[in-house]
């Protein structure tokens, strides 16, 4: 690929990816806030007694804005995260032979897994800031202290100022543990669905808008339903104290052991309901928007 075409390729995927990322934030962030809060709260004396109680208290004490707590981080980071995500996917797919033809199903999984590895370096810090904002009220209620973070920039400034730049990468290994298989599943099922909807003798470009939307929803459903426990571990580790001296979890194995001791196997499925409620519409909106914007600017 020539340098000029490589730049054009990256810019096209960046623009389309940013549009898709904005769509997923607008549609899915309220569900994500509920998910993270239910995942991260302590089992003993929890702030929220289930999904409905979490909804009620979030609205009562924070209003509609409470459901979008921490949205600034993923919204601002979409340009970088989705650019890396979709450009990596297209590049890896092309290197596997998918530039001019459809790939075998397993190669889409490989391309997706590689994408998950690359994108985690960007998504990790974005998710950490988001998680800190979303769980700030839990720490406030638990420790009877005022809310710590005013907005995402304030959170970033405090975290980096007190703990150094490396602090934003807390939970990165757990992010990789989730992203590598999850993105493989995500793009694998996405391409599988698009292939299924392709009319005989046609190409994926011939599928309808509704079928495109459904393909994204199917991908999102399997992404979350098949890898959810790893997301719980990631969220819990990112919501943990940033100071190594007071941190509860030193590594993934210790986190998994302690979570299991807290509530058995069901502890790894806390927050699953809002997650699955989010998975289909949010991911359908993202991939649908990405594909359509990509076509428009081509």
CATH architecture: Alpha/alpha barrel
Name the CATH homologous superfamily: Mitochondrial carrier domain
Fraction of residues in H or I helices: over 70%
CATH topology: Mitochondrial carrier fold
- The ordered H/E elements are HHHHHHHHHH
Structural class: mainly alpha
**Helix tally?**
10
Distance between the termini: 17 Å
Please tell me the overall pLDDT.
91
The best one-word shape is globular
What can be said about the biggest beta sheet?
Answer: none
Strand content: under 5%
CATH level 1 name: Mainly Alpha
Q: Strand tally, please?
A: 0
Residue runs with pLDDT of under 50 for 5 or more positions: none
Keywords, separated by commas or semicolons:
298 residues, mainly alpha, Mitochondrial carrier fold, 10 helices, globular, MCP_dom_sf, DgyrCDS5797, Mitochondrial_Carrier, transmembrane transporter activity, membrane
Structure description:
The chain has 298 residues and is mainly α. 74% of the residues lie in helices and 0% in strands. It has one domain (3-296): Mitochondrial carrier fold. The chain contains ten helices and no strands. Helix 1 (3-40) crosses helix 3 and helix 8 (209-239) packs across helix 10. The radius of gyration is 19 Å and the shape is globular.
State the gist of this model.
Helix content is 74%, strand content 0%. It has 298 residues and is mainly alpha-helical. The protein has a single domain (3-296), classed as Mitochondrial carrier domain (Mitochondrial carrier fold), CATH 1.50.40.
